[in-house]
Batch of 2 targets.
Target 1
Amino acid sequence: MEIHQIRYFAAVAREGNFTRAARSCFVSQPSLSQQILKLEDEIGQPLFQRLGRRAVLTEAGERFQARARRILREIDNARRELADMAETGGRLVVGGIPTVVPFLMPGVLEELRNSDPRLRIELREEILGRIVDSVHSGELDLAVTSRLGPSTELQFEPLITEPIWLVLPVGHPLADQVDISIESLRDEPFVFLGETSSLGHQVTRFLMDVDFDPNVVSKCSQVRTVKNLVAHGLGLSFLPAIAAESQGESNLVYRRLRGISPYRELGIVRHPQRYLGTGARRFCETVKAHAATLRNSTLE
């Protein structure tokens, strides 16, 4: 059994397709398929069901996947530990959800680039479900997300708890109020982030808890789209405090809700069995420092 065969197996399991797996591994599809067949021959059982273009794990494949992940994680941990001993900058792959990356990551990455030019950092912006899968599989070293559910085995280190604010266009009849009652919003149209957004799910759950059924007229995938629609008077929205920009938003106002305080918690996500090298530790320290700055300014 060869390491590259295990990597190919993990790629097919992740992608659910031999062609996409081969592309992600930078090999030809026939070469990857041949190595998977050799691996199945050695194990003595098929690891995948070939359903047209789809590749679905068999029961044996599901059991092997857990072992394969541990093997690849240990190999990667060994490589990182040895790289630290050699005092090389190394490579770090980090992720973040779309409602965090634009507001936190640019400053973090700029500081790390200036303090340690040898450290190569790759950033991937994805929805929460894909971030979780990528940290599990080892594709991501670390990620910054909202709090995960209790069922995950990943480690979540809290950074900040931030309020979720009502966003209105300047000139709206409610914009002059310091705080706004939820009842006064019953007849207002709303612009929300869509079902793939973890923030969208949090806002929906919060509104259900307070028995508020919003009139949703638009669903978007990007915070910037939400802001533009609100600025043009096409609806109100709820966004986290981190999304409130200090400059260039003279057409939007952010207000708290009266008597209720929706919020979300942000933190650093990692696999507890993954080795944290020098670069990863520097990343965590820098993220914490920038999060503290946000907490002391925008979030107050």
Target 2
Amino acid sequence: MDSRQLQTLLAVADTGSFAAAAEVVNLTASAVSQQMVALETELGTQIFDRSRRPPTLNAKGAEVVQSARAILQILSETRAAISGGRVSGTLNLGTLRTASMHLVPQALAEMRRSYPEMAFNLRVGISEDLMNDVVAGRLDAAVVAEHVGVPPTLQWTPFLHEPLLLVAPPDCAGVPAEQLIAARSFIRYHTNVPLAKQIETEIARLGITPTEVAVVNTMPSVIGCVHAGLGVAVVPQIALHDPAASGLAWQVFGTPPIHRRLGIVRRITSSRSEVLSGLHGALAARSRALGVGVPDES
């Protein structure tokens, strides 16, 4: 088994076929097939289901792919350490959409000052999917919400603790939240994420049935609808950094106030511990600067 075989295996896993992988690794499709047969022979087991066209990875193959990603990452970092080179390569990071607007990009900009030779592959998704990608090795880490079950092979470390806010057009300043939700049209944030569930749960607990004027699945669209005067909405505090939120009336939502926490999830054993610790530090620093850092529990 050599690194070229593992790189080819990852190309097959990422592209879905031998032919597409061949273009990535600059080989013929026949050469890719031969490498995969050689890898299976060395492993002593089949990692592809060849009854399908094109062949697909089986369960054992998926496990080998996960290990291959870790091995190649360790090799890359070991070469850099031995040569005295700086940390380089690509950090594969997942994030929730609400953190992708300002917080994560600002943290990555800070990271570039410490790791100028590092590049970033940023993927936006929902917490459950992102954690599955971390477990499988497709992502090095991900920014996810607290209200999600974390598998035992991962660790979740919080960096943000923010209140949810009721935002409304400027003429609504000073009106109690319950009165606004009952009297004004409501813009519902609807997507399969913990934040949306938190909002819906608290509105139900208040015993209010809002009159929905719009249902949208991105936070910038929610802010845009409120800015246009369509109605009121509940958003996380970091959403106020959207330029469209300037001038909107807002107040803390919930009795008692509802908060959410975000954290970075990563594998317990990771070859990128140093970089990921730096990333957590950058995210925590940006959160503190925005006034939503995790309180000191010491």
